[in-house]
Amino acid sequence: MSTLEEQQTLAQMAYWYYERGANIKMIADRFGVSRFKASRLLQKAKDEGIVVIRIAVPVQKRSQLEERLEEALALKRAIVLQDEGLDDAARLVNVGRACADWLTRTLKHKDVLGVAWGRTLQKVAEALPLRVDSDLQLHVVQIFGGMSQKLTSYSGEEICTRIASTFSAACHLLYAPAVADRPESKRVIMSQAEVRRTTEFFERLTVALVGIGSAELTEDNIEYRLRYFSGAELRKLQTEGVVGDHCAFFDINGKICGDKINEKRICITYKQMRKVPRRLAVAIGEKKAKAILGAARASLVNELVTDETTAEAILSLL
Question: Which residues, 6 or more positions from 65, have their beta carbon under 8 angstroms from its beta carbon?
């Protein structure tokens, strides 16, 4: 018998095949598997009774939300999970598992995977198997500078190392702080040979795995909690209408804001991020709805893993 996560995937595939009329090739492309495996999984869905029982209301609701998000946010792929009855901690674990599964199934030979940092990405890394038998020959690249030792489990270094270990990939860490004191300090740091060896991969990324931060002045905002930016700086951002934070601050319409603050950050630039073919974000929470919408409109995201409550909050803004 399949696990719950596997059953959710089987149900989604069955919905698109039996209810939406997609053919095997379309199913294979949508779920990132071969046509042979797509056919085998659809048969498995029948064998386990999912087509008869589980394709009814929940899967239809979930798939419709995915379709609406993809259209509204111009996404290549949206994965929306059920979260009814789950507390915030369980929701976070849920999307972490789903994102880990999607990443494992869709990474391709010689992909260059850029990885950010944060609590949600920590859950993705934790959900990955200890080792994946593959010959993908991946490169895993830390695309944001390092965090305070107070939050080492959230750090890009920790998460990159864990992901690289799973895929037996080459790991390229960014030995620099997340934020420099001044733009001049950033230029000195970025000129160092050890830093350049990692940042040179930014232009070669084929996949980026990121979270999406809010711009609220609360302890949930990691950058504010660690005092990377002062309250005055963040309050100024709010006067500009900033709603979110990715590799740059942006407003709900996708306009990049806070140039002076962005100049101190040591990370991939928003212009570099927009060139990455797959920009996969994982984020949940009604408070992040505006940030997710702004990130999509800024072309910083084109794939999204989230849950129903968050998806409905995003769509309510349109």
Answer: 78, 80, 308, 311, 312, 315
Assign domain 1-55 to a CATH class: mainly alpha
Any residues with CB less than 8 A from the CB of 249 and at least 6 apart, and which?
Answer: 215, 237, 240, 242, 256, 257, 258, 261, 262
In the chain, which residues fall in CATH 3.40.50.1360? 68-315
- What tokens appear for 187 in the block? 């230029």
The distance of Cα 3 from the centroid of its chain, to the nearest Å, equals: 23
- Find the helix packing angle between 24-31 and 4-14, rounded to 10°: 140
Three-point CA angle 148, 262, 306, nearest 5°: 70
User: What pLDDT digit, counting tens, does each position of 244-287 carry?
Assistant: 988 999 999 999 998 888 888 899 999 999 999 999 999 999 99
Q: Could you tell me whether strands 207-210 and 170-172 are parallel, antiparallel, or unpaired per DSSP bridges?
A: unpaired
Count CA within 13 A, CB hemisphere, residue 306.
34
68-315: which CATH topology?
Rossmann fold (3.40.50)
Q: Helix, strand, or coil here: 242?
A: strand
Structure tokens at 67: 């379709």
- Contact assessment for residue 83 and residue 8, using Cβ atoms and an 8 Å cutoff: no
**Cβ atoms 142, 173 nearer than 8 A:** yes
β-bridge partners, 8: none
Query: Any idea what DSSP says for residue 200?
Result: G
Range with the poorest average pLDDT among 161-165, 227-231, 252-256: 227-231
Query: Residue 42: is its pLDDT beyond 50?
Result: yes
Answer whether 117's CB lies under 8 Å from 159's CB: yes
Question: Which part of the chain is CATH 1.10.10.10?
Answer: 1-55
- Name the one residue in this structure whose structure tokens are 């909690």: 225
The predicted model scores a pTM of: 0.79
